[in-house]
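Lab notes, practical 5.
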Amino acid sequence: MKERLVWLASLVAAFAVPAYSQGTFQNLDFEAAHDLPAPGNIVATSNALPGWSAFSGTNQLSSILYYGDAGGALVSVGLESSNAALAGNFSVVLGGGAISQLGLIPTGTESLLFEAVLSPYFGMSVSLGGCYLSCSAIYNGVNVYGQKYTAYAADISGLAGQTKSLAFAGTGFLDDIQFSSQPSPEPPAPSLIFVAGGILVSLRVRRRRPARAGSN
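Output from the prediction step:
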C-alpha cells in the first residue's frame, strides 16, 4: 500500500504541469466559447467549440446544446458549464457523438493527456490520425465543486511533429486536453476502459444540478 501511494504521488506531481504546447491545435480546454445563449438553448458549434468540429454519426453538427445548469435530454454533443465543468468554465459532454480537430502535434510531444468522466455503461474512444489510442487512467481527482474525474494518458511519441486529426467519440464529460513532453506512465495495473468503434446511446434525462452562486 505504501509503495502504491508513493507511486501515485510521484505520478500526480509529474503530470500536474501546464500543457506542453498546443501546436496548431486550439481550444483544447474548451474555454474559448463565446456569444452563448441562455442555458438550455442551441448555440452554433463555431461559438461553443471554436476550432472543433462536432458530429452525430457521420453528420456534422452546425449547432449543439448549451446545457449550463438547465439540464435537459442528453444530445450527441453539448457544452456544459458552471459547477458541472471538470476544469475552468466549460467542458464538453458527449452523448454518443464526437468532436474532432486537425492540427500539428508539437515536436517533442510524448503523451496525450486529458480529463474525463465516463458513463458506467458506455466507453469513449480516442483517435489520432485515424488510429485508436490505448488510454490508461493515471489518477483520480476532484475539482473545486466536488465533481470527480479521472485523468488519462496515451503514448503518442511516434506522432510528434506530424499533422493529424484528433477525435473523441462516445459518452461522457471531457476537458483539459494536453500534449505533454512527459512520457506516458505505465501504472502497475492499467485501466484501459476506452473502446473503439461506434457507440449507440438512447436519450435520457440528465439530472438537474444546483446552480453555483454568481454563475451566468
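Observations recorded by the TA: The chain has a mean pLDDT of 80. The two ends are 44 Å apart (CA to CA).
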